[in-house]
Structures are given as C-alpha cells and as structure tokens.
Amino acid sequence: MPNVQEKIFEIVAEQAVLDVSDVTLESTLEDLGIDSLGLVESIFAIEEAFDIQVPFNANDPSESDFDISTVASIVKAVRGLVNEPAA
After folding, report:
1. Are the beta carbons of 52 and 83 closer than 8 angstroms?
2. Per-residue pLDDT of the chain (87 residues; tens, 9 = 90+)
3. Domain 4-81 is in which class?
4. What dihedral angle (degrees, nearest 10) is formed by the CA atoms of 23, 25, 26, 31?
5. Is 0.85 surpassed by the pTM of this model?
6. Which DSSP category does 70 fall into?
7. Per DSSP, which regions of 1-87 are E strands?
C-alpha cells in the first residue's frame, strides 16, 4: 500500500499541474487551482490508488462525509477509509 500522504500529494499535484513540492498539508484545492472537475478526477484517482470507496457527492460536496477543505483533511479522511476493515 502506498504512503497515503505521498500518494495524495502526487494525485493533487497531477490534477493541479504542479510539482509535488508545491503541495502542502495546509494547501486547499482552491489554492492549488483545482476546480470541480479536477476534484472529481482527484477523488477517482484516490479511490483507484487505495482501492477504497470515497463517500463524496460531487453534486453536493457540502453534504459529503469526506472533508476536502485542505490537503491535510483529505489525507486524514483517506487514512480513515484505508484503515477501515472491509464490510
């Protein structure tokens, strides 16, 4: 299993067309220039990379149980999903 933080930095950097070094835990997706389509593509990439199902509603992100406010919150949320036992 890839390191969660490193992999998310890679995915976010790829979507933002930035170097991984430009991504920090404090970065917001907006800071990085990731729009709603980029967000959806990031979620798909995260699901694929970690073989998880992200509880995210692209039509209503505020109603999702997946915190996308900062890169750190995404890392934390993914870690929670990765550590959850399969249902």
Report:
1. no
2. 569 999 999 999 999 999 999 999 999 999 999 998 999 999 999 999 999 999 887 777 677 788 888 999 999 999 999 986 555
3. mainly alpha
4. 30
5. yes
6. S
7. none
